[in-house]
Amino acid sequence: MKVTCDLSISADGYSAGLNQTEERPFGDDGGDGWGDKLHAWMEDPEEARLQLEWLAESKAFIMGRNMFGPVRGEWDRQWKGWWGDNPPYHGPVFVLTHYPREPQPMEGGTTFHFVTDGIKAAFERAREAAGDGNISIHGGATTINQYLAAGLIDEVRLRVMPFTLGAGTRLFDGVPGLNLEQVESRAAGPITHLTYRVLH
């Protein structure tokens, strides 16, 4: 089993801008607020195929509530995520939240489970669900930072986009110093792929 994280960031390390709203889930992201610049790689069929292959390597996923959706506080509506009726995960997704909610099954084998007792509880549930498969700490940066700080991530996969944001939600904020071993560095047009093994 391997625990990975996978994130698109600006050249100065931000995965989203300030002022995130339902209408602009990535906030002031240098583009349309929906991550069009941060996730421009999705327009490249080869890059999109590689991403789906990486997703398929993982058998369980963990994400923060902000990544799951814009609802804050109590669940006052039955939000089902940003991805439509058939999300790309095709497995169990454990969503960190302070507010309990019943599991949300979706088409294609994805079920969102809502975990209220912290990152380690979500990790244990994901490990049990994944069996011998990988776990993806899927974002956003705040959630990834918590798992990095707890020493629970084995591999960091980054897509670095060629612009800066200057402010927002930033990878590695609040994370103690890490020793990383470079596994891959690859340029794909304007995108730089960086993969690091975390040396525990």
From TrEMBL:
Q: Where is the signal peptide?
A: none
Domain Bacterial bifunctional deaminase-reductase C-terminal, residue spans: 2-192
Q: Which GO terms describe its molecular function?
A: 5-amino-6-(5-phosphoribosylamino)uracil reductase activity
- Give one Pfam family: RibD_C
Q: Which GO terms describe its biological process?
A: riboflavin biosynthetic process
Domain of life, per UniProt, equals: Bacteria
Q: What is this protein called?
A: Dihydrofolate reductase family protein
Q: Which organism is it from?
A: Actinomadura barringtoniae
Query: Mind giving the lineage of the organism this protein is from?
Result: Bacteria, Bacillati, Actinomycetota, Actinomycetes, Streptosporangiales
